[in-house]
Specification:
CATH architecture: 3-Layer(aba) Sandwich
Helix content: 25-40%
Radius of gyration: 17 Å
Number of strands: 11
Mean pLDDT: 90
CATH topology: Rossmann fold
Number of helices: 7
Strand order of the largest sheet: 5-4-3-6-9-11-10
Keywords: Methyltransferase, S-adenosyl-L-methionine, Transferase
Protein name: Methyltransferase domain-containing protein
Order of helices and strands: HHEEHEHEHEEEEHEHEE
Shape: globular
InterPro entries: Euk-Arch_PrmC-MTase (IPR052190), Methyltransf_25 (IPR041698), SAM-dependent_MTases_sf (IPR029063)
CATH class: Alpha Beta
Length: 255
Amino acid sequence: MQDVMDYRRSLERSRLSRMRRDGASVFTMQGREWDQLPGVFAPTDSPSTGIALDLLGLASPDARTHGSVLEIGCGTGVIAVTAALAGSERVVASDINPFAAENAQLNAARHGVGHKVHAVHSDLFDALEPGERFDTIFWSSNYVLAPEDYAYEHPHERAYVDAGYAAHRRFLAEAPSWLTPNGSVLLHFSSRGDLLSLMRIAGEVDRALRMVRVLPVQEGEHEVQHMLIEIAPRHRTPSVPGTRTDAVPQQGRRG
């Protein structure tokens, strides 16, 4: 299992993906066609986008949502656009890669939800309006841990690794302050990441973690556990299924 946790393996996957995609293209997912711009994380090169849709209950064609959603690390915008198509009235798609923000807006327009989806180039929450609040905040994270001093060579690498878990620390610390009163913060993590380090960081920033769902996925010769984790201030017990916001649907989840 150590080899799939090695950040150098993930960086090589990022490099190969960039080499394969030196121009704009179109891919198919969820029975729909999507624009793919160069330099943006490609859902067809990794299973994580499809798994995230499954974890959120958005993989079903009859999935229904409502409320407002903020997606961190939106990439091509598949998750953000799917949430809007399923019924969410307002979706903000944020990515530190400016090409990804452009890509997400293209796909929102392609699928007729450009009036619902607003894509923004942002380092986590930095470019959001101060008064914005969301019923659901979701991040399918770059859960592979890279050394704290690693210097990114391309924005694309940020979709694959997190140096020193700096982004995870900020997400855990800052995300709850962007919620509506009954909102939920959800994190897609995996056993390719360092769960013990995530738990330690949660304690340091006074956050509680609750496992909502675990989905085992065979990746090569390894079974990788993909996790949907709810994050809340430690003084507030994370909500239980059936009581949290319906901005992300509950059907199909298992604890």
